[in-house]
Structures are given as structure tokens and as C-alpha cells.
Amino acid sequence: MEKYHVADMKLAEHGWNKIVWAWQYMPSLQFLYNKYKEAQPFKGATIAACLHLEAKTANLLLTLSHLGATVAACGSNPLSTQDDICAALADKGVHVYSHRGMTTEEYFGYVRTVLGYKPNVIVDDGADLVATIHQEMPELIPGILGGSEETTSGVKRLRAMANEGVLKFPMIAVNDALSKYLFDNRYGTGQSVWDGFVRTTNMVVAGKTVVVVGYGWCGRGVAMRA
Length: 226
Prior knowledge:
226 residues; 8 helices; Rossmann fold; 2 domains; alpha/beta; single chain
């Protein structure tokens, strides 16, 4: 098995610069790293992750690795996957299988490759790792202690599995945490909608007149160009 599969390892330095910049704004992760780096609590464990592969999640994966784990990861979204981040992670010893713009077939191929490391812990975003284990690789279930699921859609899938009595190991619903609810689901969604408008139109925000068209789940409304 290849130790990693990324678009271009020449992008590693650029990706590493982004990871280092993000690290200075992650005090909780810094605290855990400094507290447990000598104890190596994850030594001997294998952690499989399916996440948006960008600078912040890269720091999570690297911290897990620095605390002793063997870490294998794939990108949970073909458009959020950053090739320079993937290259930097691979350069630092994380087993990364992903590239920006991957097809659905490639995506599930990467999911299966990551699960080929026979993980003890799952870090999921959308529940595709968990679903693939239950549907295609049930032999892995006895070795899995549990895992976490980040997003709303993934938690819904897991709850449906639990209600049907088919979920075979415990999962933490990160999406239910108050901090996730407030900063990501509520306010982060509103920011993402506006960011989507800006990226789609290639519009500069400064000096523009906008109209707020609603105050829904986003909390702060959705702003559109007047």
C-alpha cells in the first residue's frame, strides 16, 4: 500500500506555511499537545479520519500523530480538499489519500484505503467511514473503540443507524456540542453563505450597498448585493 496519494508533493512547503500560521490561533490544541506530548497517550493506536483537509484540520491530525497515533486521512469533500495541505501532511508522516476535484469513485476508493489501516478510532465528517465499515468491512468492528462525527448530516445518519440497532460501536456527536452549535452551525453558516456570494461573483465587499433579506438559522441574516 502506498504511504500516501496526493496531487503534488512539491506543494508541501506552501502547505506547511499555512499550517504553521493556523497553529498560532489554536490554543486548545496547543494545550493538549504540550500536556500530553511526553506521555504519548495514542501510542499504538491507529486513527482514521475523513475531514475537510485544510490548515485547521491538518493541525488536529498532526497533533494526534505527535501524541503517538498512526494517522490515515482522506478528504471529505473534493472542493474543500487543499492539495498543498495534503502534501504537507504526507511530508510529516500522515497517510493522506486525497486530491482536490476527486471523483465520487476516487473518493470512496480513498475511504477504503484509509480503512485498510484497520483503525481503532474514527474521526468522521458525514459518516462515510462509519457507513463503509458497517456495509463493506464489518471485520473491522471488533477492533474499533469508537469515534466522533462532526456534521449535522452525519449525526442524522448515525442516529438512524442507532435507532435501527445496527450501529456497532459508540460515536460522539460533536455537532451537539454547544460551541459547535453556536460558532459553526449558527454563525459560521451565515458567514459561509456570504463568502459563497463573494467567491461566486468575484466581488469586492468594501464600499458596496447590501440589503439583508432574512434572519433565519444563519442568525445574522443573509446579505446580498443591492
